[in-house]
Amino acid sequence: MIKKKLFALLALFATFTLLLTGCQGSNQSDKGAGQSSQASAGKQAKARTLDEIKESGKIRIGIFADKMPFGYVDDKGQPQGYDVELAKKIGEELLGSADKVEFVPMDAANRAEFLKSSKVDITLANFTVTDERRQQVDFALPYMKVAIGVVSPEKALVKDPADLKDKKLILVKGTTAETYFQKEHPELKNIQKYDAYQEAYDALRDGRGDAFSTDNTEVLAWANKNPGFKVGIDSLGKEDTIAPAVQKGNKELKDFIDNLIVKLGKEGFFTKDYEKTCLPVYGKDVDPKQIVVEGDNLKEYYQAFNYSGE
């Protein structure tokens, strides 16, 4: 049942992508598949230049298909979410229209690989910046702040990692939560890992696990929509940032995104994006400043992200 739901979701997303890309998208997909095979053999496919992207008339941006409110597919088969709004803005600024964006659904574990294989030009799938990931991809300036959270049933609420000692913890492969628990809590042996967020949430809802850990922004949103569950731990580890990523060495595209994020931040774009996509999910109890990075707040990140534009 779980896999049927996931396949149906991705099928809707694939339909939308085909409508966007047409015959050109098919040719690019074929090219991307070949490049993906090349990458799996240990070779990195060449990233497209800005001129090549403009000439093709499409920019390929990877997002989640099952992570509300950041990247998901609605009941009409349309991609929605905080990341999606930024992706559309990139399409408008670079190619003159949001319709020029080719959305590519991805799982947490293949966000870097899709860049290496040039299957996507940009990864915008709620990608948390870490030192390990910096070795694989280049991150642009951040547009969100995030920490790790844990959601569990209210009747058996997990309030501390110590509460997980004799319980089953659910994680999604390739996430910062997986890395955190592997490093900080190796004593926890009863861990279930899934490839997709929907699979993980279904496992928690069905009682196959006692708690689920991922970004606090994600679990807070899910708990608000699912009575009987609550976020007992809303912040683990250090505060991290979420940023767009490009293939390692693609300075031209990274610089374009950096400059655009600064511009959008000054215009208040990300607060408006939050109000459109996140406020209906989080409600007024969550302060947007806990999540949104823009305007004056962005200056503290310039040095860390080697931004020299302003």
Q: What are the low-pLDDT stretches, counting only 5+ consecutive residues below 50?
A: 1-41
Please write the string of helix (H) and strand (E) elements.
HHEEEEHEHEHEEEHEHEHEEHHHH
Question: Structural class from helices and strands?
Answer: alpha/beta
Report the principal-axis shape: globular
Description:
This protein is an alpha/beta fold. The protein is built from twelve helices and 13 strands. It has a five-stranded mixed sheet, sandwiched between helices. A three-stranded parallel sheet has the order 5-1-6. The protein has a three-stranded antiparallel sheet with strand order 2-3-4. It is globular, with a radius of gyration of 19 Å. The model is unreliable at 1-41 (pLDDT under 50).
Descriptors:
310 residues, alpha/beta, five-stranded mixed sheet, 42% helix
Record the SSE blueprint.
Layout: H1 2-40, H2 50-56, E1 59-63, E2 66-67, E3 71-73, E4 79-80, H3 82-95, E5 101-105, H4 111-116, E6 122-123, H5 131-134, E7 137-139, E8 144-153, E9 169-172, H6 176-184, E10 191-194, H7 197-205, E11 211-215, H8 216-225, E12 229-242, E13 245-247, H9 251-266, H10 269-277, H11 279-282, H12 299-302
Parallel strand pairs: 1-5, 1-6, 9-10, 9-11
Antiparallel strand pairs: 2-3, 3-4, 7-13, 8-11, 8-12
Keywords: Signal, Transport
Biased composition (Low complexity): 31-44
InterPro entries: Bact_solute-bind_prot3, SBP_3_CS, Solute-binding_3/MltF_N
